[in-house]
């Protein structure tokens, strides 16, 4: 019986509490903004009255522009600090308000593209973890998009469908919390005969899947039925070299027909490999998600959709219930279109040397955006109302086929000929031609970061969102464990964000008109991430070169403007450290985080900006999938907190160059002082060089001390040393004492 109709107060499903630090943030922002204006005044006076040569004017101008960029980026961060809030959901009260049989159906989207970079066994674990949600199983439908169209991935999910019939009831009957099989069997689980039997089944499945991947094909001994053989034959004959190849859709589990080992219904499990054409753009992950949006509309059309990365498994079986505390219409936001959970990660080393947590992006900033109109969409762990993909609340955009509309009721079996025929049609490579998909309907095209761009466009249309951060992480995923993978990922993000920042939908123009200044500023902060490269590179190079030539370019320690620089540095770093630690961070991890921002500047952000410019000039580069494969030696070094270089990369060259230059400048500064120059005149330059040296310690170790495979390539060290010599040569002739 629905107790919502009974007398008495309705139990709360969620709470909202503004954070008290918002008052301090506002006061500090006013003080810091005044300091910025004072710094600009100091720069302008210096440019007008203290530059006597063209070179000195150019140096002062570079520092001025760098500070302008830093000031702008600081101003965008204030949007996150003006009104941070904390939410809490109470899923234990849900069944007092809503009968379990009335829970809305959910479609879950999981995308993968390469079985060698994204191991199928990991994707299977992700799927099984959500199939085992504490939720009516007949209301769950899991759609797996395989853009690689690989028989390896298909075989893995055929095995997962069989194992799932044992795993889902096992989790339900034993009230298991870790419902990802791999996470459960690597935890301290209770050893019982039933558990041992289930583990043997899982290990058997894992051995088959990993064995197939290792051999690059599915051996006949792994195929248990003629039906499986016929299904896999479709993938073996699928010709990806043809101009066009058709979509492949396979219903692996049907909730109306398939039951688990106890007789209970199984969730739907559908494998989708969309059609592709070499003559048509496929729009990467956004295109795959739109194909799933249409296929799912033709088969189940659930009102709520969850998007998940293939390596981001469910860590909390109550997550779906938490969502129902807000969706579809139980939040305090009438236009709420999605609920975003933070990305959390397992396997991080103690120092998190590559700042893989991204605490600002996934924790600190979202609570600030939640105090405005809601957080941005971060690509995974997000539950949408299907309606949000079809225009604003006040201006519904009709799909070209009525059956794809969010209010269409599917009353035919998902494995019926009519339903499958429509599903294949809407998954075809040319289906989107001359339609609104990607522009007004679905996930939006126009940026490599489809998640950021889609969330931004949805909020520009008037949709709001909610940030849900329970004490137990809802999802856990893998992080890159090599520096080159981290930098390549950041470079790809930079390109996609710049595509939005300099488009007609730029947050600085279109965004301000559509959603107001503060929300637009929060999105602009991400859109223009890459311009961070300019001030970081200037401050990493120019003060050190001037120091080597014995030229002071900053105020002396006894001048009033020195204290202005000191306040701005300590104030910005201090507030950032406090924000980091208040999101359950540690000082050690904060240090790694600030170091990675400095590392990204001369490397990923510079290369990302360059690639964006090349793309605008008609010289596009390809899209790379971040590897999810864990090598034993790499994992060991990562666990020890050792930076991984290993392979030569152009992005390592500027980093090694800056590291060497700052070390030479720091040591050379003492020589300058010993020659009788005032230490107070060079204190700031010595501090900047020394700060660079401290942050570059992993680079010196990799260049000189290490002998393992992860050391800095000798070619990179040699090239960087030559570049330092070249820079000093230029400074020697250009900078005169």
Automatic annotation (TrEMBL):
Cellular component GO terms held in the UniProt record: endomembrane system; membrane
Annotated transmembrane regions: 24-42, 54-74, 523-542, 562-585, 651-672, 679-697, 717-735
Residues engaged in binding UDP-alpha-D-glucose: 117-118, 147
Pfam families: Cellulose_synt
Keywords: Cell wall biogenesis/degradation, Glycosyltransferase, Membrane, Transferase, Transmembrane, Transmembrane helix
Source organism superkingdom: Eukaryota
GO molecular function: cellulose synthase (UDP-forming) activity
UniProt xrefs under InterPro entries: Cellulose_synth, Nucleotide-diphossugar_trans
Active site positions, chain numbering: 147, 451
Listed SUPFAM superfamilies: Nucleotide-diphospho-sugar transferases (SSF53448)
Keyword Transferase among UniProt keywords: yes
Protein name: Cellulose synthase-like protein G3
């Amino acid at each position: 019986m629905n107790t919502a109709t009974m007398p008495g107060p309705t139990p709360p499903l969620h709470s909202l509490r503004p954070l008290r630090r918002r008052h301090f943030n506002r006061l500090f922002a006013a003080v810091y903004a005044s300091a910025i204006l004072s710094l600009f005044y100091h720069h302008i006076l210096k440019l007008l009255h203290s530059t006597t040569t063209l070179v000195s004017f150019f140096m002062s101008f570079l520092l001025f522009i760098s500070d302008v960029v830093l000031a702008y980026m600081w101003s965008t961060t204030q949007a996150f600090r003006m009104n941070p809030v904390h939410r809490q959901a109470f899923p234990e009260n849900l069944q007092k308000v809503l009968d379990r049989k009335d829970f809305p159906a959910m479609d879950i989207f999981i995308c993968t593209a390469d079985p060698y970079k994204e191991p199928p066994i990991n994707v299977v674990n992700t799927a099984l973890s959500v199939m085992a949600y504490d939720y009516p199983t007949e209301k769950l439908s899991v759609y797996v998009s395989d853009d690689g169209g690989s028989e390896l991935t298909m075989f893995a999910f055929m095995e997962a469908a069989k194992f799932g019939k044992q795993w889902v009831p096992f989790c339900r009957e034993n009230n298991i919390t870790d419902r990802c099989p791999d996470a459960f069997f690597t935890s301290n689980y209770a050893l019982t005969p039933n558990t041992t039997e289930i583990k043997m089944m899982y290990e058997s499945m894992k051995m088959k899947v990993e064995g197939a991947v290792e051999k690059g094909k599915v051996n006949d001994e792994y195929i248990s039925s003629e039906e499986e053989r016929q299904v896999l034959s479709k993938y073996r004959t699928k010709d990806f070299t043809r101009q066009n190849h058709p979509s492949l859709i396979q219903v692996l589990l049907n909730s109306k027909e398939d039951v688990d080992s106890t007789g209970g219904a199984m969730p739907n499990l559908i494998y989708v490999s969309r059609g592709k054409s070499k003559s048509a753009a496929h729009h990467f992950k956004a295109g795959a998600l739109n194909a799933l949006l249409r296929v799912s509309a033709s088969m189940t059309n659930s009102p709520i959709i969850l998007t998940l990365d293939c390596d981001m498994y469910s860590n909390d079986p109550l997550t779906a219930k938490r969502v129902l505390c807000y969706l579809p219409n139980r939040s305090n936001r009438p236009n709420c279109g999605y609920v975003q959970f933070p990305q959390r990660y397992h396997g991080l080393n103690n120092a998190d040397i590559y700042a893989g947590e991204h605490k600002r992006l996934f924790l600190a900033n979202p609570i600030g955006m939640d105090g405005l109109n809601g957080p941005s969409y971060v690509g995974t762990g997000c539950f949408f109302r299907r309606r949000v993909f079809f225009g604003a609340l006040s201006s519904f955009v009709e799909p070209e086929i009525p059956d794809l509309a969010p209010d269409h009721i599917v009353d035919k079996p998902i494995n019926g000929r009519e339903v499958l025929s429509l599903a294949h049609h809407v998954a075809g490579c040319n289906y989107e031609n001359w339609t609104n998909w990607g522009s007004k309907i679905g996930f939006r095209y126009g940026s490599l970061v489809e998640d950021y761009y889609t969330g931004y466009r949805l909020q520009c249309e008037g949709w709001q969102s909610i940030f849900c951060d329970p004490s137990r992480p809802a999802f856990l995923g893998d992080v890159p464990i090599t520096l080159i993978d981290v930098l390549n990922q950041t470079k790809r993000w930079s390109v996609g964000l710049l595509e939005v920042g300099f488009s007609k939908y730029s947050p600085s123009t279109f965004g301000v008109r559509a959603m107001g200044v503060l929300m637009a500023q929060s999105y602009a902060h991400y859109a223009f991430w890459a311009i961070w490269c300019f001030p970081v590179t200037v401050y990493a190079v120019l003060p050190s070169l001037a120091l080597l030539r014995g030229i002071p370019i900053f105020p002396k320690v006894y001048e009033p403007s020195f204290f202005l620089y000191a306040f701005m540095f300590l104030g910005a770093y201090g507030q950032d450290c406090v924000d980091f630690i208040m999101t359950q961070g540690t000082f050690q991890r904060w240090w790694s985080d600030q170091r990675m921002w400095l590392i990204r500047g001369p490397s990923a952000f510079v290369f990302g900006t360059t690639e964006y410019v090349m793309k605008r000039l008609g010289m596009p580069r390809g899209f790379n999938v971040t590897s999810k494969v864990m090598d034993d030696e790499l994992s060991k070094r990562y666990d020890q907190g050792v930076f991984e270089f290993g392979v030569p990369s152009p992005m390592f060259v500027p980093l090694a160059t800056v590291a060497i230059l700052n070390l030479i400048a720091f040591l050379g500064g003492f020589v300058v002082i010993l020659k009788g120059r005032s230490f107070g005149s060079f204190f700031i330059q010595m501090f900047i060089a020394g700060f660079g040296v401290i942050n570059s310690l992993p680079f010196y170790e990799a260049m000189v001390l290490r002998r393992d495979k992860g050391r800095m390539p000798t070619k990179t060290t040699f090239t960087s040393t030559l570049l330092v010599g070249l820079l000093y040569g230029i400074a020697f002739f250009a900078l005169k004492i």
